[in-house]
Amino acid sequence: MSDWARTLDALLRERGGALFGYAYVLTGSATAAEDLLQDALVRTFRSGRGTRDLNSAHAYVKRAMSSAFIDAGRRSASRPRTVAGEAAEDATIPDHASASAAALDLQAALLTLPPRERACVVLRYLEDMPVASVAAELGLAVGTVKRYLADGVARLRALHLDIDLTDADTIPVTEGRKR
Amino acid sequence: MNSAHDLMAELQRDGAARFGATGLATDHAGVARKVRRDRAVRATVFSVAGVAVAGAAAVGLAQLTPTQVTPAVTPTAPSGGPTAEPTPSAPPAVVTLSVGREDRIENVARNLAIAMGTREDDAFSAITGALPPEAGGYAEGWVLAGEYTLDPEHGLESAAKQLVSMTTAKLESLGVPRDEWFETVVLASIVQQEAPAAYADQAGVARVLLNRLDERMMLQIESPLAYYLRADEREITDDGWAVDTPYNTYMYEGLPPSAVGAFTPEALEAAVNPTDADWMFFLRKEDGNVVFSTTLEEHQVAVEEEYPGTIG
Questions:
Q1: Are A21 and B12 in contact (CB < 8 Å)?
Q2: Mean pLDDT score of chain B, rounded to an integer?
Q3: Surface of A (53-82) touching B: CB under 8 A
């Protein structure tokens, strides 16, 4: 077994769930998450970069998923968005028992965001990443990420969910707030 | 009020819990196969169908040539007669297959097809089907250079096994552990390309390559890129050096994803028993001999001596 094959094996065994979970938050569907993860694995291990140790492979695969996700959004931007379709597809899968109603509300809300806004919001909130890291991960400019975050958060707020989206440190929306 | 982080983390856990139910969790052979295929697009063109087709090919061959297959031979033909490879009992029937040093596997397959009177892609599939699991589906490098005597009556599958078993037998007799077979074959194929002359110090070249791998230096050798770009058949243009492929050892660390051609048993021995030295560079001279250096300075002096004016 070559180096990369061993890493691939260990990666899926030890980090498969985490990577899949991230893809699932991004796409909102188990099928799409599996496709996203599979393509990212192929792309990462094909290039041979960062496939020697587990941590760098994990980071590379995750980044490959992030960029594939926002690129797919760019490519399909000229076609009608399938947000409703994604949500409907997911609704037909009746195994949501483990997620709370609030989490499902958030998931549905996330699916209304365009891919770039969604990716920024997920990285910022799920991973607690600073804006600069989000920008690096997605290959976007810091200012662009700030705008996507502000727009995304505004959209989520407009849905009046029972969710705390404040973030005093880096979200421009709350910049003027006094403690 | 729930924090966005907690809810997203919950979604991620929910997703993670579903991972176990996906095909990926239980079997990532598909990913590994795609990676291997992409890493060596050409070498694996037929390999997916290879294993399945190999058996069918032998049966098909037997059906196509019913008059030549005597009843006594028939039982062994479809099953391929795995290891029973008797010396030809009917001398006029045997054919000779010659595998040249540095031959690409496609050439080997083509010559096998001609020798056996079959189609070329069937021959390729048969070779792929005969590979040990350690080859990971890459046929390149698994047929040693040399002369083979084949008996068409035993079928294509049997012939392919005969070709590949020479390599595996050699690996076994050299005492190479099975988990090192693949790397050894890749290394030997590069040694062959870099030091093709029979009198060249192939064990020294193997040592340089291994030292560079150990130091995690890039190999920076032409042969894998030439193999990928088919530069043995045409020139590498300047753009060629910038090609983003794992065969470009000026761009990527480590061995390329597959062997880069056939090699002699001597090259394999060199890869298994490299010279004991701390060389990091080698230079192939015009006369085919190889000069080794430990430091870059020594190497540059050697280059300047052999090819004056190369280093400005």
A1: yes
A2: 78
A3: none
